[in-house]
Amino acid sequence: MNMREKILTIAGSLFDTRGIQASGVDTIIVEAGIAKATLYKHFPSKNQLIMAYLRDKSDKFYAWLNTQLASKKAESIEMLIMLCELVEQWITTPEFHGLPFHIASVEFPDPQHPINQYSVVLSAELQAYLSALAERAGAKDPQALGQQLTILFEGAALVERLTPHSGAATRAKHAAVTLIRNAT
């Protein structure tokens, strides 16, 4: 693991467990065992570190989904149903701490703040990803289905974060499957 990845991994762990705002640069430096100059060499500001963390989390999520979905026929309803099962699985793992871009937007509520703006971009990216899958699967209105799935998945993620083991992820999966069957 190179130094940039090490810093990102340690910062990410702190952000996930303590919160973004509560994990100051000094704490990250101590936990990483590095000099402040090393951190700033790789991430010129904490905002850039946070955005790199958010991007990394999103990229890993999409890579995992794409790997899992690769076994399903790309233009089929089965792929979308598998997606629902995967999202339920992901949300209910012990490692799940909520959607990072949700947490970031709450911790940086000013719509003009770069972290809040980047969170909006990542939310739109999720919806675009789901819409693209819906289109590949032959949905009548892939944009609408993508938005509906986004609402269900983001809502389930929030409820499960606040009330673990509430069944929200399973209920969202069942609702999503119903929507998918009606939309294809």
TrEMBL record:
This is TetR/AcrR family transcriptional regulator. The keyword Manganese does not apply. SUPFAM superfamilies: Homeodomain-like, Tetracyclin repressor-like, C-terminal domain. InterPro entries: Homeodomain-like_sf, HTH_TetR, Tet_transcr_reg_TetR-rel_C_sf. Residues 1-61 form the HTH tetR-type domain. It comes from the Bacteria. Pfam families: TetR_N. The keyword Glycoprotein does not apply. The lineage of its organism: Bacteria, Pseudomonadati, Pseudomonadota, Betaproteobacteria, Nitrosomonadales. Keywords: DNA-binding, Transcription, Transcription regulation. Residues 24-43 bind DNA.
